[in-house]
């Protein structure tokens, strides 16, 4: 391995650590809305930018670390941890798959470099990562959190409403920010040589 490669890997790891720390800090900002448990996850925005900037592998690793840290710092203390399998599904796994946004890294960067609008691609690949995250929360919700559903409601429908609502809320947040901050997103995604 050359010195340039080691230096590049160190830069990616450092960026990943900083983004993970930012996402975790943003998790402590109040983010529930309405009478239900629909939540805005503000950390999804920097994670999306990082995954688009650095690709699939780096995005998956940063999401995984974010999930582990969130489990340790919030899950154990706020009652979000019921048992080891549920904890694994809703924290390391669900947060880790946010990195799937990195599947679009090369396409988004290429569109930006060619002067084309990357907004549609950013939203599309963000939807993949966000959907994957909330799909795992939906599964865990139906299996583990069903007892919290209203008595007359099927636990799977309850989980779909809560997690589907959170997915939609976060996609709207991403869309609004991507439109408003389009130029900033472009600068953050494309790596200068």
From TrEMBL:
The keyword Plastid appears for this protein: no
Show the stretches that span the lipid bilayer. Answer: 12-29, 59-76, 88-106, 118-136, 156-181
One GO cellular component this record assigns the protein to is: plasma membrane
Q: Which GO terms describe its molecular function?
A: thiamine transmembrane transporter activity
Supply the alphabetized keyword list.
Answer: Membrane, Transmembrane, Transmembrane helix
Q: Which Gene3D superfamilies match?
A: 1.10.1760.20
For whether the record's keyword set contains Transmembrane, the answer is yes
Query: Which InterPro entries does the record cross-reference, listed alphabetically?
Result: Thia_Transptr_ThiT
Which NCBIfam families does the record match to this protein? ECF_ThiT_YuaJ (TIGR02357)
Protein name, as recorded:
Proton-coupled thiamine transporter
What's the source species for this entry?
A: Companilactobacillus crustorum
Source species taxonomy:
Bacteria, Bacillati, Bacillota, Bacilli, Lactobacillales
Q: Which gene encodes it?
A: thiT
């Amino acid at each position: 391995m050359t010195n340039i490669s080691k230096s590049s890997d160190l830069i990616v790891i450092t960026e990943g650590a900083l983004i993970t720390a930012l996402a975790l800090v943003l998790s402590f900002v109040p983010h529930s809305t309405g009478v239900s448990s629909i939540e805005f996850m503000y950390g999804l925005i920097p994670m999306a930018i990082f995954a688009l900037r650095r690709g699939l592998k780096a995005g998956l690793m940063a999401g995984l670390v974010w999930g582990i840290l969130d489990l340790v710092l919030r899950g154990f203390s706020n009652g979000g941890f019921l048992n080891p399998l549920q904890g694994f599904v809703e924290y390391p796994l669900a947060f880790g798959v946010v990195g799937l946004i990195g599947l679009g890294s090369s396409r988004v960067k290429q569109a930006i470099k060619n002067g084309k609008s990357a907004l549609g691609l950013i939203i599309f690949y963000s939807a993949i990562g966000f959907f994957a995250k909330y799909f795992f929360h939906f599964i865990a919700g139906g299996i583990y959190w069903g007892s919290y559903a209203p008595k007359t409601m099927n636990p799977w429908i309850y989980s779909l409403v809560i997690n589907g609502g959170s997915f939609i809320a976060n996609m709207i947040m991403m869309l609004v920010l991507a439109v408003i901050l389009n130029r900033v997103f472009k600068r953050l995604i494309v790596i200068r040589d």
